[in-house]
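ok new one. same drill as before - structure tokens go in, u give me an amino acid for every spot. 342 of them this time. try not to just spam alanines like last time pls lmao
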């Protein structure tokens, strides 16, 4: 409703311009104040895209001669930002603190170093071991950037994300994320110390050289943040639905890995994930995403199911029952034809 009202007053494109020129309006500044307050940081800056936030922060803060240490499953936008920066990039085995410490120990203690991780990994649905990472970055004089796209609004008693959930909010140097997940709009943000955020605001290429977030999106995001901060019952319903879905799937013998979030990766061999998604849509009227390489390792595939606060118990049971039926239809083998060719 807020988005519609704002669009009715200003149109869907206003303000017309990049942020440093004609693109900044009061809504952007208020939104950034609210994001900083929500993340309990000194300041925040917002971007038109979530990927733009990740590429912009790394592309502006790091430079040739610096060292970026990325989890091997870090989001593609973080990898792109690291490459843009020109800094040396080293990857460590997923969530392996020993591997990260080996890289930190070998690095020049005087060299600028930034550890870059996701708070929640979007396909595996597991959490970064942030407490351990914080200990290592403090021990070796590095800084830490957490992309909490999938934790913001979902994890933590107040929905502030993975760092709140794990009790390390004040030890994370930069909190980044997107508004396109739990917040339900679009755009991204970076929050942290005021001087660092100011530097990013002045130099991030994905902020300087693209159109600003539309006023109607900024207004809707403000309202959504307000709802997320005050309405714990929505989060409670989400987690009830998550437990119901995951308990039922495990009870039916599906492999959903070690997910610690509502993201539920259902592992199926070969092309069965593609065929299962197709049959669920065509035969049962249920949409669920099938994910293959490069979003998951080559040779693997998952159905990626994500419950929401608005799903009902009946919705969840219908989905699981349909998936059990489809699994029986597909049998143990993996069809070789593409979905739709049978």
């Amino acid at each position: 409703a807020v988005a519609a009202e704002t669009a009715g007053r200003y149109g869907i494109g206003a303000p017309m311009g990049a942020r440093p020129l004609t693109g900044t309006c009061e809504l952007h500044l208020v939104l950034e104040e609210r994001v900083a307050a929500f993340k309990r940081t000194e300041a925040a800056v917002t971007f038109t895209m979530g990927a733009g936030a990740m590429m912009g922060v790394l592309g502006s803060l790091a430079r040739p001669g610096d060292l970026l240490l990325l989890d091997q499953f870090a989001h593609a936008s973080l990898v792109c930002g690291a490459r843009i920066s020109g800094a040396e990039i080293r990857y460590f085995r997923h969530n392996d603190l020993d591997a990260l410490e080996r890289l930190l120990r070998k690095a020049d203690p005087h060299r600028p170093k930034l550890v870059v991780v996701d708070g929640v990994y979007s396909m595996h649905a597991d959490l970064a071991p942030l407490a351990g990472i914080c200990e290592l970055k403090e021990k070796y004089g590095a800084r830490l950037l957490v992309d909490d796209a999938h934790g913001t609004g979902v994890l933590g008693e107040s929905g502030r994300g993975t760092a709140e959930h794990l009790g390390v909010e004040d030890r994370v140097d930069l909190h980044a994320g997107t508004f396109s997940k739990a917040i339900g709009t679009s755009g991204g943000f970076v929050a942290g110390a005021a001087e660092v955020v100011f530097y990013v605001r002045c130099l991030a290429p994905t902020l300087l050289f693209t159109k600003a977030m539309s006023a109607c999106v900024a207004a809707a995001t403000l309202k959504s943040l307000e709802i997320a901060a005050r309405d714990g019952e929505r989060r409670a319903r989400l987690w009830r639905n998550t437990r119901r879905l995951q308990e039922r799937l495990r009870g039916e013998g599906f492999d959903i890995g070690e997910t610690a979030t509502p993201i539920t990766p259902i592992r199926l061999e070969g092309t069965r994930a593609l065929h299962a998604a197709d049959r669920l849509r065509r035969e049962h009227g249920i949409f669920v995403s099938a994910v293959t390489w490069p979003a998951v390792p080559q040779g693997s595939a998952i159905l990626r199911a994500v419950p929401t606060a608005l799903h009902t118990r009946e919705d969840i049971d219908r989905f699981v029952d349909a998936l059990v039926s489809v699994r029986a239809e597909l049998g143990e083998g993996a069809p070789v034809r593409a979905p739709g060719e049978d």
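The radius of gyration is 21 Å. and btw Residues 232-251 form the longest helix (20 residues).
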